[in-house]
Amino acid sequence: MSRAGRRAERLVDAADARLPVLEGGSLLRKAFPEHWSFFLGELALYSLLVLILTGVWLTFFFQPEMREVVYAGSYVPLRGVRMSAAFDSTLRISFDVRGGLLMRQAHHWAALVFVAAIGVHMLRILFTGAFRRPRELNWVIGVTLFMVSLAEGFAGYSLPDDLLSGTGLRIAQGIMMSLPVVGTYVAFFVFGGEYPGHDIITRLYPLHILLLPGVLIALVTVHLVLVFHLKHTQWRGPGRTNRNVLGKPLVPQFTATSTGLSLTVFGVLVLMSGLAQINPVWTYGPYRPDLVSTGSQPDWYVGFLEGALRLVPPWETNVAGHTLMWNVLLPAVVLPGLLFAVLYAYPFVEQRLTGEWHHEQHLCDRPRERPVRTGLGVAGTVCYGVLLLAGGNDIIALTFRVSVNALTWVFRVALVVAPVVAFLVTRWVCRALTAAERERLAEGVPTGDIRQTVAGGYESDHEPVETFRPGAPRRPLTGVRTGTPSRTPREPERPGR
């Protein structure tokens, strides 16, 4: 970083120390750390902006109706085929509206990136402990935002009424039916009658373009307001304390960086939309209740539910004339409920167990310094990965010429064993990394020079540690053996440079 940039950071740091509450001009001097991991949330924000812009454009051409029409558009293989007006308008957007296919694919790619960015951002918050006091509310908002984004993505995925999305709706109807006592009533109300009904697309449409986007925008707004009010977390390092933030001022440095990131996100999404095909509904055809497309796979963010449904054995129980379908209720209702319950409760449980809820925490932890928390996060990620792979067990079995039944049992065992192994290995690796780092600080960095001692033995020369990763400890070094006069350590590099 240039001398002027460092001076700006010091000025911003001093301003924040004098003005802990943002008022007037201090807002423009608010400091933002510039480590790459802190930009994951902005990646989600700009993906959401692309979603909104492309979604508004698509609303001018899409018809959310299930009335039957005969296709007479440009795609010759489907001419004369009966289909819903929703699917007909989707084909018209793709083949007859100028730029329509590009906008459709940009909307879909942005949705995938949006959910992925939220998920990775939450992992960053989890692994660095940025959910601790006073940010518990922002963590709750983030989890809710993730949950609403899953619902929003599924609603948009189902609107074209093609064979693939219709298969997903059929699974959703089965999940509703698995609810004890009220399942049949819920499914009847949602679909407007016996499946597939005539109202599901008409009801999903206002949810997708009005209600759920409104909730998303409201949650994002509150989330950003809290980020400004509570002050940004930062890595430990020289000059960084719980009472200040060292980084780029909002105007003009951070604004310029954020603007560049937004343009990059827009450009990459448009490039992907023009080069990488996604959701080609014309190859699936219109939805028919008596058909299922070969190799049906949902978008990745609900793939874990598909995998869970495939792994649970066909368990059923009859109670007082009601059938409890455990093979659907457990993986599709109980599992997601437990997942989000754990996510909501984790910040409060950990802080109670560690006693950290008494004090505010503004400095990030390094994952290796919290082996149990890091192990739990990796175990949860591995569990999700097993379920995601299980959702494509038929495709994997066909590709590698293995038995789908044997593969299903492999995934069942892995679902129980793999997270435990992942937790133990991650905890061991974190402790090993911490021990190696402690030894490196105590003994210094090997220079590669070997010298012979008076007693006739050999030992390697070391020099003081001069470069540090973000958040790494920088305590003074003692007892460093050097064969030649050691250099005076220069000023350590700033984190993230």
TrEMBL record:
It is an enzyme of class 7 (translocase). InterPro entries: Cyt_b/b6_N (IPR005797), Cytb/b6-like_sf (IPR027387), Di-haem_cyt_TM (IPR016174). Residues 452-497 are annotated as: Disordered. Its EC number is 7.1.1.8. The chain crosses the membrane at residues 43-62, 108-127, 139-159, 171-193, 205-230, 324-346, 376-400, 406-430. Residues 488-497 have a biased composition (Basic and acidic residues). Residues 11-236 form the Cytochrome b/b6 N-terminal region profile domain. The keyword Zinc does not apply. This is Cytochrome bc1 complex cytochrome b subunit. The keyword Ion transport does not apply. Pfam families: Cytochrom_B_N_2. Keywords: Membrane, Transmembrane, Transmembrane helix. It catalyses: a quinol + 2 Fe(III)-[cytochrome c](out) = a quinone + 2 Fe(II)-[cytochrome c](out) + 2 H(+)(out). Its cofactor is heme. It comes from the Bacteria.
